[in-house]
Amino acid sequence: MAVRPDLPLQQRGEALAAALPPLLVAAERVASTVAQGVHGRRRVGQGETFWQFRPYELGDTPQTIDWRQTAKADRVYVREMEWEAAQSVWLWRDTSASMDWASERGLETKRARADLLLLALAVLAIRAGERVALAGSGRLPASGKATLTRLALELERGDTAAVVLPDEDGLPPRQDLPRFGQVVWFGDLLQPLAAIEARVRYFAERGLRGHLLQILDPAEEALPYDGRVRFEGLEGEDPWLLSRVETVRGAYVERLGQQRAGIAEIARRAGWTAALHHTDSPPQSALLGLYQALAVQTGGR
Predict the structure, then answer these.
(1) Which is nearest to 154 in space by CA: 172, 133, 175?
(2) 252-281: per-residue pLDDT in tens?
(3) Under 8 Å between Cβ of 119 and 128
(4) Burial state string for 57-92 with b = 16 or more CB within 10 A and e = fewer than 16
(5) Can you give the residue range of the structural domain that contains 49?
(6) Structure confidence at residue 167 (pLDDT)
(7) Is the pLDDT reported for residue 192 higher than 60?
(8) Are residues 196 and 147 in the same domain?
(9) Domains in the chain, number
(10) Which of 69, 179, 238, 287 could bond 77 through an S-S bridge, CB–CB 3.0 to 4.6 Å?
């Protein structure tokens, strides 16, 4: 977007801000709050194992250019080694219909909160020198402001045009990712534990570290209803009519606790981390926990 140079500075600034996706503006604000007092992360030493070619970007050194690959195409390519792949963070959030729900008008939906946290984590990761990508998008990890803007637009529009791998079961699609990378999942994680464990194992066995953030609406946690209630499914389930909801509250809370404990155990066995976040809580606390988990796992390699 071109901004007229003859406009006052304030108007030019407002015009530039208006051009940014609203989600990115909100994510930058959350990330800035968390970034206060958080130091940058160190890179590990250079490796010798080739990972991939990628287009040359501003800031790359001439020594990283692969002239043979460049000669075959109409653009300049850089040769990435495995230590650089270790700086790649693959982000994914559940797009199932159940995520588009909030128990109260003033609350964000689970999907909106997942989008915000995903993008805010991308902001922090890129500031720390990482490259990020949306899992299943078909794009290579990248950094820079343009990457954030594109990611924000994809999230806001629900853009699936670039997505080549479906997530029909509400879990990240299986894809070959470079070992030593990290994956972060945002979702309500209410799928069967066996399915979650199988998908976690798929990535863990390929050398990836991961982080699971379960995002729930507070009503899903407490089932705060009384009397006769009809529950409508969001993903094709049959309606469920209860004459007295309070009679099943105890069993429901116990079952949800078992789900959370199962997720934590799955993550522990894989060497991953897992956390719980409610949509009525400030996003900064969840974001800080995720960022610290990424930093600890990178620093420990």
Answers:
(1) 133
(2) 999 999 999 999 999 999 999 999 999 999
(3) no
(4) eeeeeeeeebeeebeeeeeebbbbebbbbbbbbbbb
(5) 45-81
(6) 56
(7) yes
(8) yes
(9) 2
(10) 69
